[in-house]
Write a structure and sequence with these properties.
The complex is a heterodimer of chains A (260) and B (256). Chain A has two domains: 30 residues; 154 residues, MetI-like (MetI-like fold, Orthogonal Bundle). Chain A has ten helices and no strands. Chain A starts with a helix and ends in a 15-residue tail after the last helix. Chain A is mostly helical and 260 residues long. Chain B contains eight helices and ten strands. In chain B, strands 6-7-8-3-9-10 form a six-stranded mixed beta sheet, with helices on both faces. Chain B has a four-stranded antiparallel beta sheet with strand order 2-1-4-5, covered by helices on one side. In chain B, α2 runs parallel beside α4. The chains are: A mainly alpha (260), B alpha/beta (256). Chains A and B meet through α7 and α8 of A and β6, α2 and α4 of B.
Chain lengths: 260, 256
C-alpha cells in the first residue's frame, strides 16, 4: 500500500467524524454550551496549550496512570504466573481475586482518600485496583490456553520446568497478556478521570470537571479529546509495534480475517 | 542384538471423566525392541497404541509394569526419547532454524556447534532456504519435516512418532514416508512409530506389532523382510508387500 493511500486510510475516519461534528454545529440545533463547535474547541485547545495548563494537567495524569499501571502489572503479572503454574497458589488466591474482581476501581475512592488524602496518591491507588484485574484475568486465561502438546514436545527435547516456562509459557501467553495490558490501560484511564474528578485538584479529569463548573464546554471537549489522543498514541507507538514484532509475526494473531 | 526398549507387563488404566468410569487402555503389554530397528505399532483407534508411546516417552505413567530404555527405567520425559507429534508441535515463536536448534541449545552446546548441527539437519530434511521462516509460513509437510529434524538434531536414543503423517495430504505423505525411511536408515535411528495405516507400517518398518481393540493386547508381531531403500512405486507391485499387508489386516480385523 502506498504512503498516500495509507495516510488517507488512517485519516479518513477522523475527517468524516469532524465533518459530521461541524455540520451538526452549523445546523445550530443546540446552543454552543451544550454542543461546542470544532473551531471553538480548537481555539480552547490552542489556548490551553499556549498557557501550559494542558501540558501540566496531562503530565500529572500520565504520571499517575503510568505509575498505577506499572504497580498494577508488577503485582498482577507475577501473581498470574504463580497462580497459573502452581495449584496451591491458585486454590488460595482465586477465591480472593474473584471476591474483589467485581468491585469497580472507583468504589475504592472513599478509602483511597482516607488512606492517601486528596491528590494523585489516591488516584494512583484506584488506578492500581483497576489495572490489576484485567491484566491478571487475561494472563490466567492465556496460561490455561497453552497447548499441552507444545509443553510435551519440548519436554521430550530435554526441557525442564524452567525451560518450559521460558520457551513455551512466556511466549504463548503474550497475546493474552497484551489484551490484558490494553484493557488494563483502558480501565486505568476510566479510573484516572473519575478519580481526579472526585479526589484530586489537578490532572485531566479535574480539568474536565472544573471546566463544567464554569460552563466552558469547549475545554471539556479538549480534556476528553486529549485522553483519546494519548491513548491513540500509546496504541500506535508502543502496543501495536510490540504486537507486530511478536504475536503477529509468529502467526498467533492477525490484523483481521482477510487474506494478505 | 541388544534390546534398547523393554516393556514388561505394561498396563494403563485411566479414569474417563465423561463416561465416569475406569477405562483399561492397555492390558499387560510385554515387548522388546532392538537398536537400529524401525518398529511400528498399529491397531484400531482406541486400542491404546498412542498411550503406549506416551508411556515410553514418559509423558504418562503406567498403572502396572515398567518400561526401560537403554537399561534405565522410564520415570519421565527426556531428551533420549524425542517425540514427533501428529500436530507438529513446533514452537510458533521460533523460526525453523531456532526450532531445530532448540534441543542442542538446551544441552548447552556452543553456538558454532549448534549452527553446524542445524545446517546439517535443515539440509537433511530439505528445508534449505526456509531456515528463517516461522512455522505458520510453512506447509503442513514442511512443518512435519522441521519437527522430525528438530528431534533428530537432538540425537535421541529413540525416535518416537505418533501418527506423524496423519495430518498431511496423501501425496505429501508418500514423499515424507520415503524420506523418513532414507533418513532413519542413514542416521541408524531406532524408531517407534504409531499409526493406524497398515500399508504405512509395512512400508516403513523392520517389524510391525499389531494391537487388538480396547483393551490393547498384542495380536501380531511380524518381521518385515523387504529390501531397503524402499520406494512406493516399487512397492505397489511387490507381492511380499501385499502379503504382509493382508496378513496384518487379517490379524487386526479378525480379532476385534
Amino acid at each position: 500500500m502506498s504512503v498516500v493511500r495509507k495516510l488517507v486510510t488512517e485519516l479518513l475516519p477522523f475527517a468524516v467524524a469532524l465533518a459530521i461534528w461541524q455540520a451538526l454545529s452549523m445546523a445550530d440545533v443546540w446552543p454552543k454550551v451544550l454542543f461546542p463547535p470544532p473551531l471553538e474547541v480548537a481555539q480552547a485547545f490552542a489556548a490551553d496549550l499556549a498557557s501550559g495548563v494542558l501540558m501540566v494537567n496531562l503530565g500529572v495524569s500520565l504520571r499517575s496512570l503510568m505509575l498505577g499501571f506499572a504497580l498494577g502489572c508488577a503485582i498482577a503479572v507475577p501473581l498470574g504466573y504463580l497462580m497459573g503454574l502452581n495449584r496451591a497458589s491458585r486454590d488460595f488466591f482465586d477465591p480472593l481475586v474473584n471476591l474483589l474482581q467485581a468491585i469497580p476501581g472507583l468504589a475504592w475512592i472513599p478509602f483511597a482518600i482516607l488512606w492517601f488524602g486528596l491528590g494523585q496518591g489516591a488516584v494512583t491507588f484506584i488506578i492500581v485496583m483497576s489495572v490489576f484485574f484485567p491484566v491478571l484475568h487475561n494472563l490466567l486465561t492465556g496460561i490455561r490456553m497453552v497447548q499441552p502438546v507444545l509443553i510435551e514436545a519440548v519436554q521430550t527435547l530435554g526441557a525442564g520446568r524452567v525451560a518450559v516456562i521460558r520457551h513455551v509459557i512466556f511466549p504463548a501467553t503474550l497475546p493474552n497478556l497484551m489484551t490484558g495490558i490494553r484493557l488494563g490501560i483502558a480501565f486505568g484511564f476510566r479510573s484516572l478521570v473519575g478519580g481526579e474528578m472526585i479526589a484530586s485538584t489537578d490532572g485531566l479529569g479535574y480539568a474536565i470537571f472544573n471546566a463544567q463548573q464554569y460552563f466552558q464546554s469547549a475545554r471539556i471537549v479538549v480534556g476528553m479529546l486529549t485522553i483519546g489522543i494519548v491513548w491513540l498514541a500509546m496504541d500506535r507507538l508502543v502496543l501495536r509495534p510490540i504486537e507486530q514484532r511478536t504475536t503477529m509475526r509468529w502467526g498467533l494473531v492477525r490484523e483481521g480475517l482477510e487474506k494478505n | 542384538m541388544t534390546d534398547l526398549l523393554v516393556a514388561s507387563a505394561v498396563s494403563k488404566t485411566y479414569f474417563d471423566t465423561v463416561a465416569n468410569d475406569n477405562v483399561v487402555a492397555l492390558d499387560g503389554i510385554s515387548l522388546s525392541i532392538g537398536t537400529h530397528q524401525f518398529v511400528s505399532v498399529i491397531g484400531p483407534s482406541g486400542c491404546g497404541k498412542s498411550t503406549f508411546l506416551r508411556l515410553v516417552a514418559g509423558l504418562d505413567r503406567p498403572t502396572a509394569g515398567d518400561i526401560t530404555v537403554a537399561g534405565r527405567k522410564v520415570t519421565g520425559p527426556g531428551a533420549d526419547r524425542g517425540m514427533v507429534f501428529q500436530e507438529y508441535a513446533l514452537l510458533p515463536w521460533k523460526t525453523t532454524a531456532a526450532n531445530i536448534e532448540f534441543g542442542p541449545r538446551l544441552k548447552g552446546l556452543p553456538p558454532a556447534e549448534r549452527a553446524t548441527i542445524t545446517r546439517r539437519f535443515v539440509e537433511l530434511v530439505g528445508l534449505k532456504g526456509f531456515e528463517n521462516k516461522y512455522p505458520h509460513q510453512l506447509s503442513g509437510g514442511m512443518r512435519q519435516r522441521a519437527a522430525v529434524a528438530r528431534v533428530l538434531a537432538n540425537n535421541p536414543t529413540m525416535l518416537l512418532m505418533d501418527e506423524p503423517f496423519a495430518a498431511v495430504d496423501a501425496m505429501t505423505r508418500q514423499h515424507l514416508q520415503e524420506e523418513l525411511t532414507a533418513i532413519t536408515a542413514h542416521e541408524r535411528t531406532t524408531v517407534l512409530f504409531i499409526t493406524h495405516a497398515i500399508e504405512e507400517a509395512v512400508f516403513l518398518s523392520d517389524r510391525v506389532i499389531a494391537l487388538s481393540g480396547r483393551p490393547g493386547r498384542i495380536v501380531a508381531d511380524l518381521a518385515i523382510d523387504l529390501p531397503r531403500p524402499r520406494r512406493w512405486d516399487a512397492m505397489a507391485n511387490d507381492a511380499r508387500f501385499a502379503a504382509y499387508r493382508d496378513e496384518l489386516t487379517r490379524c487386526i480385523h479378525g480379532k476385534t
